[in-house]
Design a protein that fits this description.
Rossmann fold; 24 strands; elongated; phosphoprotein; hydrolase activity; transferase; ATP binding
């Protein structure tokens, strides 16, 4: 970065991260988006940050009154009542009085009034920060796009002489040439959007400092705008250490080669009710004995149900929560973007020193988190890479469609995310429905290439000896005679 370039905070922490540190002093920024996306509110955060730093700030507005702006800010905890305001909107008398202009173009009068008002306000107030909401109101009083460009250029030079940092807002209008002009002249462009996937924010241009690419999560909460940049794995020179995560169940630990390595991603797949969550919880309970802390994110059941089910099979979830070695977080459906969920996980790791994160389960995640399923899976992969870079072990439960047998290791082609895959399945044996458990994948270390009977009892999980002399288990119908054509498992 050029040592002569200085930056200031935008008032929104996550946005400063996207801007690679903040806004460049003395530059003009365009915040663009459809109505209701948060353009004005972002400008208000910018001014509020200036007021916190004892700076002088000016709000130039033309569509809403000062009272309306302050009321809207108060609703989300943003206070800019100490800012200076310049209202360029028409007075209410405009609609009741008959204005006439003799021998001059009406736009000439309005243009001179706008220009003089802005010039006088800035000379008198000498602001450090200015918001113009919207910048397009200046276009309406110019004769053509050429004149508008000249006016904006002149305005920018005037502001830069005083090192004034400016945020302007505009609603995109591709059919208008001046929309392109504003984007071209702006030193930075912040684009806001709102759709089925929730609110999104993107910095598409930032002179001098550069920007984080891509679109990112954004929400408007009780405290105003919150921006959630996509998490990026942290660089580490820490060598890989084979510290094993064990279940404490002899048969299961033998099956998985004494344990799964920590700092890896383990999928526990299987049909509904097979015991995926209980198996994951068993790993976390055993880890607690070694002083490790775990957090489980529940997407498909509430905390009370989860706690009751775990306690009923002898896993002391309540005690672990009281001791601080296990925390549970219930995720409300459609309440979060994938980025906000990722930052929720990050905050808990920072605050609690979490060693193990369990996401229960993928189906609930893709339903509960807003966004396209393909994008959500990509973001989940990014989250697991980030967690591994922080030294965190990840457990993920994944429900597959087959009740008996198994034709695919994971749902939605998620195998590439997993370092390890354990699976549960129902089978029919001796006229009754039984469960089996096996391992399909383990990137580090060996494991048994067999299946074992799996059972959940009042005393906990029981895993039996390897099942031998049986064929067709993965098809759900074990038999003692070897078939001539054995179907292969699709691990994709």
């Amino acid at each position: 970065m050029d040592s002569r370039v200085s930056s200031i905070r935008s008032g929104v922490d996550g946005l400063d991260e996207l801007l690679c540190g903040g806004l460049v002093t003395g530059r003009m920024y365009l915040v663009q988006g459809k109505p209701g996306t948060g353009k004005t509110l972002l400008g208000m955060h910018f001014l509020e940050e200036g007021l916190r730093n004892d700076e002088t700030v000016l709000f130039i507005h033309g569509e809403e009154s000062r009272e309306e702006i302050l009321a809207n800010g108060e609703a989300v905890g943003v206070d800019i009542s100490d800012a200076a305001f310049l209202d360029l909107g028409p007075d209410s008398e405009f609609f009741t009085e008959d204005y006439s202009y003799d021998l001059v173009d009406p736009s000439d009068i309005e243009r001179e009034r706008y220009t003089q008002d802005i010039h006088d306000a800035i000379r008198e107030i000498d602001p450090d920060r200015v918001v113009i909401d919207p910048i397009t109101q200046l276009r309406y009083v110019e004769a053509n796009d050429h004149q508008f460009r000249k006016r904006i250029l002149s305005f920018m030079r005037f502001l830069k002489q005083g090192e004034v940092t400016v945020i302007t807002t505009a609603t995109p209008s591709p059919e208008q040439e001046y929309d392109t002009e504003i984007r071209s002249l702006s030193d930075g462009i912040i684009e806001l959007d709102r759709g089925e996937g929730g609110r999104r924010i993107q910095v598409s241009k930032h002179r001098a400092l550069g920007q984080r690419e891509g679109d990112h999560g954004m929400e408007i909460r009780d405290d105003g705008i919150e921006v959630y940049p996509q998490l990026v794995p942290e660089g580490t020179d820490r060598p890989f250490e084979s510290n094993l995560l064990r279940s404490g169940i002899d048969g299961l630990d033998e099956l998985i080669g004494r344990g799964f390595d920590q700092r890896t991603v383990t999928f526990i797949s299987g049909p509904t009710g097979a015991g995926k969550t209980s198996t994951g919880t068993q790993f976390m309970a055993k880890a607690a004995e070694n002083g490790l802390k775990s957090t489980i994110y529940l997407f498909e059941e509430d905390v009370q149900t989860y706690e009751h089910r775990s306690e009923s099979i002898g896993i002391p979830v309540s005690r672990l929560r009281e001791e601080g070695t296990l925390s549970t977080t219930e995720i409300e459906p459609r309440a979060l973007s994938s980025e906000e969920f990722a930052h929720t996980v990050k905050r808990q790791i920072d605050r609690q020193g979490t060693d193990i994160v369990m996401i229960d389960g993928i189906g609930g995640y893709t339903v509960s988190i807003r966004g396209d399923e393909t994008d959500l899976i990509r973001d989940l992969h990014g989250l697991t890479r980030y967690l591994k870079s922080r030294g965190v072990t990840v457990l993920i439960t994944n429900e597959i469609a087959e009740i008996t047998g198994i034709s695919s290791a994971t749902d939605s082609n998620l195998s590439y995310v997993a370092d390890n895959i354990a699976f549960l399945s129902y089978v029919e044996m001796d006229g009754s429905l039984r469960k089996v458990i096996g391992v399909l994948k383990k990137r580090t270390g060996g494991f048994e290439h067999t299946l074992r009977e799996f059972e959940i009892t009042e005393d906990g999980i029981r895993v039996g000896d390897p099942l031998t002399g049986l064929y067709g288990i993965l098809q759900g119908t074990p038999r003692t005679d070897e078939p001539s054509d054995i179907s292969r498992l699709d691990c994709s």
